[in-house]
Amino acid sequence: MQTSQKPPKLVRKPPPQDNPFKRIDIALKRNHYQPDALIEILHAAQNTFGYLEADTLAYIAKNLKLPLSRVYGVATFYHLFTLKPGGKHTCVVCLGTACYVKGSQKVLAALEQQTKIQAGETTSDGQISLLTARCIGACGIAPAVVFDGQVAGQVSPAAALVKVEGWETPE
Ligand code: FES
């Protein structure tokens, strides 16, 4: 006997919220999940989240089939990476040789004076984290500074201060 009853419609779940690891997945695929790409993947993760959380490191370790200790080792070795939540805005001054020669130390000193924090710290109002890196791969435009994930080249102390002063006023 046939029944005219239609099967119940499947209720589609709403699409999941934007996958927080999407940008990491893209970087993983682009690098064919090669363990050698660890630093590049960590860069992608930090650019996405602003810092590297334990969950993020575990996700990267799993996908690259690397021991978590190795991923932690690399993430803590390079000054560019931070494991702590940063301020609302992040400013990374490159102190690699090319940038140093072009005066990045003066840029950093100006920023430290302006924000009243040292490299590696976050302002007490949580607005700005000031970090340093050894080389961000932009030596041709030294001195380079990364403002909220955007690389800026030939940054003078005055230009860096203008940028950061804009961040100091809470929106
Ligand atoms: S030394 Fe600064 S980008 Fe290479």
Characteristics of this structure?
171 residues, alpha+beta, 4-stranded mixed beta sheet
Describe the protein's architecture and organization.
- This protein has 171 residues and is of the alpha+beta class.
- The protein has 7 helices and 4 strands.
- Strands 2-1-3-4 form a 4-stranded mixed beta sheet, with helices on one face.
- A hairpin with a 2-residue loop joins strand 3 and strand 4.
- Helix 2 packs antiparallel against helix 3, helix 3 packs across helix 4 and helix 6 packs parallel to helix 7.
- The longest helix has 12 residues.
- FE2/S2 (inorganic) cluster binds next to helix 5.
DSSP strand content: 5-15%
Give the C-alpha Rg: 21 Å
Give the low-confidence spans.
10-18
**Sequence of strands across the biggest β-sheet:** 2-1-3-4
Overall shape:
globular
Q: Note the main sheet.
A: 4 strands, mixed
Name the average pLDDT: 83
Count of alpha/pi helices? 7
Instruction: Write down how many β-strands occur, each being a DSSP E stretch of 2 or more residues.
Output: 4
Structural class given helices, strands, pairing? alpha+beta
Précis, in short:
By secondary structure, the chain is of the alpha+beta class. The chain is 42% helix and 11% strand. The chain contains seven helices and four strands; from the N terminus they run H-H-H-H-E-H-H-E-E-E-H.
Give the SSE map:
Elements: H1 22-30, H2 38-49, H3 54-64, H4 68-77, E1 89-94, H5 97-101, H6 104-115, E2 128-133, E3 145-147, E4 150-152, H7 157-168
Parallel strand pairs: 1-2
Antiparallel strand pairs: 1-3, 3-4
Helix pairs in contact: 1-2, 2-3, 3-4, 6-7
